[in-house]
Design a protein that fits this description.
- Helix content is about 65%, strand content about 0%.
- A two-stranded antiparallel ribbon has the order 1-2.
- The chain starts with a helix and ends in a 7-residue tail after the last helix.
- It has helices spanning about 1-25, 30-40, 45-55, 65-70, 120-155, 160-175, 180-190, 195-205, 225-255, 260-265, 270-280, 285-300, 300-305, 315-320, 325-355; strands at about 80, 85-90.
Amino acid sequence: MKQFILRRLGTMVLTALCLTFIVFVLTNLAPNLEKVAKNQGNARMNDQEVHSWLEKRGYLAPLPIKYGQWLGVLPGYTHQADDGVITGRCINKDNTAQTAPTFCGVLQGHWGISTVFRKSVSSVISERLALTGWLMMWVMIVMVPGALIIGVFAGMREGSRTDRSLSTVSILTTATPEYVSGVIFIALLASSKFGISPLLHEWGWIETKTLFKGTATSAMKEITFINFFLPVITIALYGMGYIARMTRASMTEVMTAQYIRTARLKGVSFPAVVMKHALRNALIAPFTVIMLQIPWLLNGVVIVETLFNYKGFGWTLVQAAGNNDIELLLGVSVVSVVVVLVTQLISDIGYVYLNPRIRIS
């Protein structure tokens, strides 16, 4: 197991370097750099002025050198103006050319400055990642148990009315995009003119005009059931159907296994067969699917965060891409890559422990 983990860690490092280098190349294409120069400098700059602006800030260095500087394995760039003033990647208001560190990249904790938020990239990412982390946690709490219960009940009685009903619900939730279900929930539960909220208010069942809030902006400061329920249920329902169908298929296969029939012939009760023998083996395949939901939740909730005006990690990714914020976009990419790779490693290790028959060659 130790050798397996070490090999996987080495593969993860190489994969992270390759993926971040690809993103680095794409974000440092000539048209993007020209936009950066005109957005940060002057929109009316000519080609010569753009070239001079980019050269002073180290953008025109060869890509491998720039990538090494950003990563922190090569010394940061420096530029000396005609008046003798020295500027560079590692030189800022807190230090001078003499006191500045030689290396200041991602490995040293220097992620750059966001041109959109005017703050350090690390602070922006940590703040937005924490917001999305709360959203992910509550979605997993609602989604995973619900999906497993639906899948197990459907798989226990293959072909029954319960199976058909639960399978239909699972397909409908998966087939309905988040932006559609989110709008429906807002119209039905968070509108003061339509849906059931006006009726409940008229009957005196609720004091406020709406049952839930159609925006989750207030949840960024304080999470409550009223302002956080709709975004959570919107995401949870979309992912629940896929996990439920995988659980149902795995449960159906396990229930037809020979050892299940043997246990039934020995007189073991049906609930005991399901809980002691079938459930653990049936959870092997869904476990991998559940772990893969974490990267999806991190980057795939952009639509929901935008719909409910919840400014989390996905919303930050859109802002960075839309405003050509290279440093922030690279930082978001690093976090996304690390989360995906770590999640896959945990999934593989968990898969081995759930299925003792698997041997690591």
